[in-house]
Amino acid sequence: MAGCGDLLESLQVSHWYHSRLSGWCHSIDCVTLKREWVRNMNNPLERSNYPAQPYAQRREVPRYTLIAMIDIIEPVNDVRISGRVSEISRKGCYVDILNTLPKHTPVRVVISRDRGTFSSAAKIIYVQEHMGMGVAFVDSRDDQLKVLDAWLAELKEDKQ
């Protein structure tokens, strides 16, 4: 519906939620959308399923849209899952994936795209059940950070 994009912006909905909630705009009106958003943000049990809204405002490094494949390896049980990176920053990424791992799980990630591969130890920092999860890079090696920095520089250029 027309105007829901403006509503999502006025609610300071992050890019990630905007892309997912905007799909609702075709099936519900903006008043319902706002009511659902406010209900979820005011209910601590529901809010725990959402990254805290002020987090986007506290973010230390910029986040960029990036579509790339990711392999996630949980070393304790040797669980290996593949997904798709949709956003990336110097400190982590968001992974679109149906089968998520629990919050705080230490993992190893390998992100592949046409311009190389980035590999790092990481940790799951938040989970959106059946949608995806936020991953923080941990102790990335210098050679891997050079790859990541090159990607981010390219993405920053494309954004401008």
Write up this protein.
This protein has helices at 4-10, 15-21, 30-42, 44-47, 54-58, 142-159; strands at 64-74, 79-88, 92-96, 106-113, 116-128, 132-138. Strand 2 and strand 3 form a beta hairpin. The chain is globular, with a radius of gyration of 17 Å. With 160 residues, the chain is α+β, with helices and mostly antiparallel strands. The two termini are 29 Å apart. Strands 1-2-3-6-5-4 form a six-stranded antiparallel barrel. The chain is built from six helices and six strands, in the order αααααββββββα. It is 34% helix and 34% strand. The longest helix is centred in the last third of the chain and has 18 residues, at 142-159.
List the helices and strands and how they pair.
Layout: H1 4-10, H2 15-21, H3 30-42, H4 44-47, H5 54-58, E1 64-74, E2 79-88, E3 92-96, E4 106-113, E5 116-128, E6 132-138, H6 142-159
Antiparallel strand pairs: 1-2, 1-4, 2-3, 3-6, 4-5, 5-6
Short account of what is shown:
This protein is an alpha+beta fold and 160 residues long. It has helices at 4-10, 15-21, 30-42, 44-47, 54-58, 142-159; strands at 64-74, 79-88, 92-96, 106-113, 116-128, 132-138.
